[in-house]
Write a structure and sequence with these properties.
Elements (H helix, E strand, L loop, with lengths): L2 E5 L2 E3 L5 E8 L7 E7 L6 E7 L5 E3 L7 E5 L5 E6 L8 E8 L8 E2 L3 E5 L2
Parallel strand pairs: 2-11
Antiparallel strand pairs: 1-3, 3-8, 4-5, 4-9, 5-6, 7-8, 9-10, 9-11
Length: 119
């Protein structure tokens, strides 16, 4: 059974940075990708990017290039999303998802973690 557990959300001041983690279990091989998504209040969910576990190749959505960094923690099935220079419009519930490839609708989802950017 595939399971994703997220951690790292919270309240951050504008201009600050934050690191979210997504721990994945249940896959029997490394042939899968972990994606990051967010949904702000009143808006549709948007994809941020994804990382292939087999080779650590990362893809970003054009809208978040530059402030968002996706990486994999060495030696384990955990992916991270670092956000720098946070803005109030980054306030959202952030989700990770996993599937055999990068997907807008991954088969497995984490529970989501709230990120609030406010002074």
């Amino acid at each position: 059974q595939v399971k994703l557990v997220e951690s790292g959300g919270g309240l951050v001041q504008p201009g600050g940075s934050l690191r979210l983690s997504c721990s994945v279990s249940g896959f029997t091989s490394d042939q899968y990708a972990i994606g990051w998504y967010r949904q702000a209040p009143g808006k549709a969910r948007e994809g941020l990017g994804c990382i292939f576990i087999s080779d650590n190749q990362v893809f970003y959505d054009e809208s978040v290039k530059g402030r968002f960094t996706i990486s994999r923690d060495d030696g384990n099935n955990t992916a991270s999303l670092e956000i720098s220079h946070l803005r109030t419009e980054d306030t959202a519930v952030y989700y990770c998802g996993a599937d055999r490839g990068c997907s807008a609708t991954p088969a497995w989802w984490g529970q989501g973690t709230q990120v609030t950017v406010s002074s």
